[in-house]
Amino acid sequence: MLSPTSSTTKFSIKEATVQDLQLAFQTNQLTSRQLVEFYLNQIKLHNPILKGVLEVNPDALAHADRADYERREKPPGSLSRLHGIPILIKDTIATKDTLNTTAGSFALLGSVVPRDAGVVTKLREAGAIILGKATLSEWSHYRTFDAPNGWSARGGQGKNPYTLDEPCGSSSGSAISVAANLVSVSLGTETDGSILCPSSFNSVVGIKPTVGLTSRAGVVPISPRQDTVGPICRTVSDAAYVLETIAGIDTFDDATIEASKYIPKGGYAQFLKKDGLRGKRLGVVRRYYDFGNDTFLHETFKLHLKTLRQRGAVVVDDLKIDNIDEIINSQSESIALNFEFKISLNAYLKDLITSPVKSLADVIAFNNENPKLEKMEYGQDVMVQAEKTNGIGEAQTQALLNLTRWSQDGFEKLMKMNELDAVVTPFSSFSNILAIGGYPGVSVPAGYDNKGVPFGICFGGLKGSEPKLIEIAYSFEQATLIRKPPKSGILTQ
């Protein structure tokens, strides 16, 4: 077993980036087996408290041995950046192996998926090691909004490693585990805020890609219109490496064909530029900067905007999205998500080889029949509302038209009229705007409040703007270097 810092190699695994790990592999300071053993030990030590990992892959060490063999046998430089790197994936992302895919619910325990999810196929082809499944807000927080963030029946209550409070959801375990050094990098999914929010709360980097840039095939769905799969990592560079590995066409997800036009030749790592902010036009929508009487947050984000300017960005302040009140106060997103959830979940369940449940109605019945197992005091009102829908009627059609119109007349108009490269907002407060239009966003650590609670800064842009967002996020990250690991005392309480 390798210690956090090996006395013989002086190489520290904790907080190591993908680049650090690859260099350690190449210089024979570390093997994939040692790395997996280290993370398995970290999980054994800290997961009973943090509950970020739902299941560990029993074949992870065998996969690590294969990676070590390939590294010895293949020519230097022939392997991908993620070769031999352990990765934890959210428990909505299917793996055709001994791991379960359950969305955190006992209703899907023992179900058999037909194939790996599209993103998992790409990870395996790159030589990454699937370390296990991360916990989440059950059913990606689409059973009920009354359950706490980061809670699932199978995984229990996930905890923020900085505070032991709620971690935000729904990709909570992915963020918890990366933040607490239980794994190198992870995958999450987002429908509305589920990558950006836990990334902000757990002081990690999250990329919410343009919808369709990464495949959703084999992912327990909410909405094919809004769902996206993206990386959650400790650094922007690691997130870029994961994104360029998982992006691309998957014949099982038609949306990837259209979105593939956005993928830059040469991948995303080329946009990791320290001067990436130079010449960028960043918009500030002041509505998102109302921190009430919190002087600390006011001053922190004022300093961050100053940093953006000092690094060569043009900050266009005092902007307003014309239809923002209509977007925030409307039920159109909920109306759309409800019927989309029922249709897409039924299709996912029907595609399973075996499953205890074959429809949303079956899931609701299972929960009612197992109230203690599924902790039914939290209820399942969101699922029940979704089950009541009956396809696309007049209200559903109008809701979809509203979302399209608001995106075009709101965010897109704002971006184009002001010639912006991105909008910059605190926390994950902008996730709703990015969600309804399928736009990308990147969350980067931005500080810690007086109680030690982490918070992030978010850069959001138009579809396909990931190259610009990575340039901006990386430049900001390198200018500030704010992120720090959780205090070891909290992890051992």
Automatic annotation (TrEMBL):
InterPro entries: Amidase_dom (IPR023631), AS_sf (IPR036928). Residues 35-427 form the Amidase domain. Signal peptide: none annotated. It comes from the Eukaryota. SUPFAM superfamilies: Amidase signature (AS) enzymes (SSF75304). This is Amidase domain-containing protein. It comes from Trifolium subterraneum (Subterranean clover). The lineage of its organism: Eukaryota, Viridiplantae, Streptophyta, Embryophyta, Tracheophyta.
